[in-house]
Amino acid sequence: MAIASVAQHDFPTKWPALLPHLVGTLQGGPQQVEQVNAGMRCLVLVCEEMHVGQLALLVAELVSPLHQVFVSSPPLP
Prior knowledge:
It is a single chain. The chain is an all-alpha fold. 73% of the residues lie in helices and 0% in strands. The protein has four helices and no strands.
């Protein structure tokens, strides 16, 4: 929640490293499920707090990494 609150005011001008850091958490793959889950939860909270202009930047950078998460996820039982 704290990251999302700060990102609302500081992303992208004052916190340009936020997006690469969050995208990096998604690249843990199936071996680091907890890291990927934490990154996804944080992204959801961050997205809920952003305005449209910020979301456009975020979505453009997330398409490929999110696709990779879903493709590499193990099937549900």
